[in-house]
Specification:
Mean pLDDT: 95
Structural class: alpha+beta
CATH architecture: 2-Layer Sandwich
Largest sheet: 5 strands, antiparallel
Shape: globular
CATH topology: HIT family, subunit A
Order of helices and strands: HEEEHEE
CATH superfamily: HIT-like
Low-confidence stretches: none
CATH class: Alpha Beta
Number of strands: 5
Length: 113
């Protein structure tokens, strides 16, 4: 598969893996937007949140749980952080593989909408 996130998850592209289990992988964003910027992805290729089947929806909760673990590990859990899932081109999704951004370590801009 050509998907860069699938290649990272499978180990075909080396990288700093911060968390890994049978379903998920977490690693630092290559282009961080905050001092803590971690991507949490399912190992299974799911193109976007819009492509998530009803049976697959529990993965979002698992991703949030891993994000909380990473926030604690990186020291931002008690200070505050943001979780973001971009969906589709107009939603800002660049890589067509479902992923959650964990952003923290600085005051993030307030209102988004």
């Amino acid at each position: 598969m050509d998907c860069i996130f699938c290649q990272i998850a499978s180990g075909k592209i080396p990288g700093e893996i911060l968390y890994q289990d049978e379903e998920l992988v977490a690693f630092p964003d290559k282009f961080p937007q905050a001092p803590v910027h971690i991507l949490i992805i399912p190992k299974k290729h799911i193109a976007s949140l819009a492509e998530l089947s009803q049976a697959e929806t529990p993965i979002i909760g698992r991703m949030a749980d891993v994000a909380n673990q990473m926030a604690r590990k990186k020291g931002v859990f008690g200070r505050g952080y943001r979780l973001v899932i971009n969906c589709g081109k107009e939603g800002g999704q660049i890589v067509p593989h479902l992923h959650m951004h964990l952003l923290g370590g600085k005051q993030l801009p307030g209102k988004l909408a």
